[in-house]
Specification:
The protein has about 250 residues and is an alpha+beta fold. It is built from five helices and twelve strands. It has two domains: about 150 residues, no CATH class; about 50 residues. Strands 3, 4, 5, 6, 7, 8, 9, 10, 11 and 12 form a ten-stranded mixed beta sheet that branches. Bound molecules: zinc ion (ZN).
């Protein structure tokens, strides 16, 4: 039977071949075993509670690029908390430390390639950590697969379980989802009901055609053409205002 050295207490911990996760039999720390060696795995506690997550979602839904009234019309279908696994690579590049974060599980959820690990919030994931009912998503990507593409020298590498809120919502019969970073409150969304730009496009096209016509007219009668241009300008402005209010 093989063994790894516990990164916390230094004890030799026996492992079965093919095992990826084990617990130190001496100090109880959870240990992650990769082909590149053993390391801790860390967990980041939730700083954003469920009600905060819903509030963050509502504010995001009221944002300027979302369809009008999404904050009121979106019907929340489910709110779930999970710990998503990422690899944290600390590397030394030209004498300076830099942190790289890569997903450790394949996912279609948005934003999980952009997670940022908050300084000082890493907790060693041991028996005392309370997951509070959040789902622990298992890694299915090898840490090894990232190592060849990283610059600099290895300082530290670890598996980190990152807190996320997954909110599913329904808008006009279609289901969408957002991911909220459970530590920073940042919202990630790839597809959402967005504000249509067709109204503005129509106003711009009609305004453009009117100006071209008025420009031609100006060679025959400048004062009438100028007057019409003024009317067109006011018309375009009012039409844009209507589009902004209604759409
Ligand atoms: Zn130990």
């Amino acid at each position: 039977m093989a063994s790894v050295k516990c990164p916390k207490c230094g004890a030799a911990v026996a492992i079965d071949a093919g095992t990826k996760f084990t617990k130190c039999t001496f100090c109880g720390s959870e240990i992650y075993i990769d082909r590149s060696g053993a390391g801790f795995y860390y967990i980041i506690p939730f700083a954003v509670r469920e009600n905060d997550a819903i509030g963050i979602f509502r504010r995001w839904a009221a944002g300027p690029s979302r369809v009008k009234d999404l904050d009121r019309k979106a019907e929340i279908a489910s709110v779930k908390s999970a710990y998503f696994p990422v690899y944290m690579f600390k590397r030394k590049i030209n004498g300076r430390e830099q942190v790289f974060v890569e997903p450790a599980a394949s996912t279609t959820l948005p934003g999980l390639h952009q997670l940022k690990i908050p300084a000082g919030d890493l907790k060693i994931f041991d028996a005392t950590f309370d997951k509070g009912g959040a789902e622990l998503i298992n890694p299915d990507i090898e840490m090894f697969s990232y190592l060849n593409n990283l610059p600099g020298e290895r300082v530290e590498q670890a598996l980190v379980f990152f807190p996320i809120w997954k909110i599913d919502y329904i808008f006009e019969g279609k289901k969408y989802n957002v991911v909220i970073d459970g530590s920073s409150g940042e919202v990630f969304s790839s597809i959402f009901p967005s504000r249509s730009s067709i109204g503005y496009m129509l106003v711009a096209i009609v305004g453009f055609i009117a100006f071209v016509g008025e420009g031609l007219l100006a060679t025959f009668n400048l004062s009438i053409a100028l007057m019409l241009m003024g009317i067109t300008l006011i018309g375009v402005f009012l039409a844009a205002l209507v589009v902004a209010r209604r759409m």
